[in-house]
Please model this.
Amino acid sequence: MLETESLTIRFGGHVAVNDVSCRYAPGTLTAIVGPNGAGKTTYFNLISGQLRASAGSVRLNGRDLTPLSAPARMHAGLGRAFQLTQLFPRLSARRDHAAADLPHGDQRKLEIAMLIALEPQVFMFDEPTAGMSVDDVPVVLELIREIKNDPSKTILLVEHKMDVVRELADRIVVLHNGQLMADGDPATVIASPIVQQAYLGMSPTEPKA
Model:
């Protein structure tokens, strides 16, 4: 069980993440959505340790990870794939090819493969299909589905593509201005008029295909 309790970070007078409390259970995939600037990636950074919280805590299986560095949290079981691909660019990937020389889609797949190799308990994906070709996206989604089939793994997914969210998510958390706005099963959250209008770019009468 991953849990954030009253997680908050302030940058001067700006509160980027404000008092967010959520629990994430093994065997589930939670999509974290919201408009640009809602605090989604900042929330991820607080969980994985790239940023230190101004207040609140992060716990995994009851263990307080809040004081730990990002590498220490990784060793504790938190695995993170970033919005901008993080690789060792000069190390080989395909035979005789440096990672930096791979097409963008293959770099994304390599990063996910590296994450899987770490065998974390919690997988955190920040827009894993961003910048990928139409042909590459299904491969990445299939990798995430395989992880999801393991009931011991917890998956958090930041994603703007609602077709991906609908396909993969067991639960949707909506952030707005750093605050938790909605939390529930996908059908209920997507059907909410305020979420459709303000955060998913849909009108209340638009079909929810």
About this structure: Residues 104-117 form the longest helix (14 residues). Residues 203-209 have pLDDT under 50 and may be disordered. The CA atoms of residues 139 and 203 lie 32 Å apart.
